[in-house]
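Annotators were shown the component list below and the corresponding predicted structure, then asked to write short factual statements about the assembly.
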Amino acid sequence: MGANEFLFLLTGLKWTVLLSIVGFIGGGVFGLAIALARTSGRPLLERITAGYIALFQGTPLLMQLFVVYYGLALVGLKLDAWVAVAIGFTLHASAYLGEIWRGSIEAVPKGQTEAAKALSLHYVWRMKDVILPQAIRISLPATIGFLVQLIKGTSLAAIVGFTELTRAGNIVSNQIFQPLLVFGIVGALYFLLCWPLSLYGSHLERRMAIATR
Amino acid sequence: MNYTLDFTPVIEGMPALLMACLGTFGLALGGMALAIVIGVGGVILRDSKIAPVRWLVKAFVELIRNTPFLVQIFFIYFALPLAGVRLDPTPTAIIALGINGGAYAIEIIRGGVQSIGKGQIEAGLALGLHKAQVFRLIVLKPALRAIFPSLTSQFVLLTLTTSVASAISAYELTSVAQRIESDSFRSFEVYGTITLFYLVISWVMMRFFAAISTRYFSYPVK
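Structure shown to annotators:
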């Protein structure tokens, strides 16, 4: 494998990172809305968001990408593969992050909500200043765990035809006929991306376990 | 928006799609069985007296859990023939699913074993229980109960992951759907339909595991 091929893999890596960041930020924004709706105490909102979460957790990510990709084309939106895939990952991440954050919001002791209500704090301030800061802390290990999951998941964009790291690997491997070397390097690049995050996540988890003991 | 949905290819392909569900089911069952074997074996080896063996197990778990399944299945697909093993895509996919699931199973099962306090085993022996009874009643059942929720949700995830095996054209639902799609160009209809299939499959699995859980593990803790 020459320098050119390796540079091509690095370009793929760049798209993997970009796609993960876009999916995570987009998913974070919508996920927060879903978590808030899921814990809003309004039966209709809670049931709709519960269904949304169940739909995404009960189907393969690959199918979600296919359906979003072809579904957007079907309603007449001529979108770039990049945009379609980014929308797919945003929806996927919003369901998972919504569920993780719902759990963390519910894990904040009830007394906190009651105290905030007793101080007649409005819902917005109660969430922004009392509940969410604590919920975010609780959710951090699981959130980072999902980020790793998401980075690995972006590899499926290769099947839809978006040239990120895995598809770049496919292309290079077809050119130089050394699939083991190429996918070994591709795997190593993913590992370098994910492992530090995983270590950080389990470090936080341990620290929190000690704190609550 | 002047597209009319046409489900004719889906309806015509329905027998093939339903048969392919059995393929998905087979991949999932094979993958789960292999994952349990690797999981139990890995937990035993992880406590080995030989340090390099312990390191190898840890490295295996970290390596698998921090790389995408798609890359793993490609790697295994190309590595097996080089190692002199010639297998069809479907058994190859089962091996890849088992290895991937096994790494997660090691972590989950380890947590279950650690959750059994030494004092409990000693108490069982002090009450005059036989060693086999202690293992069955005091170690195995509570440990199974402790790991059951995470292990089974990992299994549901593994079942959904079988769709990725279509990348090496193993026989399962997604690859059959891809064939129908490339013949008919009714992408949305085909993939929308099998997405519902997957939803039903994972829902049935979750119901099944929940039923087992209430049947065998719903006794009070204290």
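Statements collected:
1. The two ends of chain A are 52 Å apart (CA to CA).
2. Chain A has a mean pLDDT of 94.
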